[in-house]
Amino acid sequence: MRAEWGPPSRRAVLRAGAAAALGTLVGAGAQGCGSAFASTRLTLGTGGSQGVYYTLGGALADAWRDRLELAERPVVRATAGSVENLALLAGGAVDVIFSAADVADPALTAPSPAGRAPRALGRIYDDALQVVVPADSPVTQLAELRGRRVSIGATDSQVIVATRRLLSAAGVSPAHDLSASTLGIDASVQALRTGAIDAFFWSGGLPTGGLAALATLRPIRLLDLLAVVPAVRAKYPVYDVGTVPAATYGIPGPVTTLFVRNFLLVAAELPDELAGDLVAAMFAERDGLVRANPAGRAIDTRSAIGTQPIPLHPGAERFYRSAKAYD
User: Fold this and answer.
1) DSSP letters for 30-73
2) Which of 261, 266, 271, 251 is nearest to 300 (CA)?
3) Ordered domains of the chain (ranges, CATH)
């Protein structure tokens, strides 16, 4: 569903609040707008229903409905993930999407129609690349996945892109060395729980709800990726090295992995006023996002402007300048 954007409103409170504190700014920026966006309908492209994209997408839909006083809650659309989301945005089927930085780079994606080129509302949180095995599995390294049943991520997802890069660095071919399947997060969790697969790849915020739920039914571990970090980062500097903390999903110790930034993206043609108010509402309701998933804690005005190589939408940039995020 393509958005039916309402007429521009006079948002003097938001724009005149440049000198105010951020809490005052976001509290007043999106509220008190009356019915300026009452006719606006939005669809949000997320990911699998057990992933962080979908969870935070639901919280954002609530925030935008309440703060912008929309007549209808935005539609939260489950998708395969970033690659599909970018295609949906370019085709006008959705209005706001989640996307990881490693697949959002314009150099790696097909050109978008005029006006549909992606623009960022902000950087929201970072995904951790997670390779999940049962806690009692003998596998400890990527190379030891040879000959095993492995889900490498859904087709048209960022997961499958990152998976191929990790496996290549480990000298493992999905086509020749694995019994590979292309399952999304929901199906991967179910398949590992029942023993239908031996491992699966996932890229998501910490903790990912589906993995946390799985760990209560079948103990799991994450493979340490230290051995492939140098090779992957040398070829793809978009990834950062970090650790999954001990006790996440019940794992006994910290695990080295790679992280990738996540963005909220819209089409360039989205009206500036609406883009700015979507951002203002997100920050005004940040506590609700944190309650939905701890990954929401990473949402911050200063880090949010770090969306390279995707430019900020002019409406979002205006908000961040008013919030003095560039100081």
Assistant:
1) SSS-TTTTTT---EEE---TTSHHHHHHHHHHHHHHHHTT-SSP
2) 261
3) 12-124+263-322 (3.40.190.10), 127-260 (3.40.190.10)
Residue identified by tokens 């969790």 is 189
Q: For 312, which DSSP code?
A: B
- DSSP structure string for 226-292: GGGHHHHHHH-TT-EEEEEPTTGGG-SS-EEEEEEEEEEEEETTS-HHHHHHHHHHHHHTHHHHHHH
What DSSP state is assigned to residue 93? S
- In angstroms, the Cα distances linking 259 to 62, 177, 223, 231 are 28, 25, 14, 15
d(CA 6, CA 20): 27
The DSSP code for 303 is H
88-137 residue pLDDT tens: 999 999 999 999 999 988 756 667 776 789 999 999 999 999 999 999 99
Q: pLDDT digit string (tens) for 232-253?
A: 999 999 999 999 999 999 999 9
- Rounded CA-CA distance 71/289 in Å is 21
Measured CA to CA, the distance from residue 74 to residue 158 in angstroms comes to: 24
Q: How far apart are CA 260 and CA 109, in angstroms?
A: 17
CA 13 to mean position of chain CA atoms: 30
Query: Residue type for 177, please?
Result: D
Which residues, in sequence order, are CB contacts of 224 under 8 Å at separation 6+?
Answer: 140, 141, 255, 256, 257
- Is the torsion defined by CA of 246, 247, 248, 249 positive or negative? positive
- pTM for the whole thing? 0.82
Rounded CA-CA distance 34/67 in Å is: 10
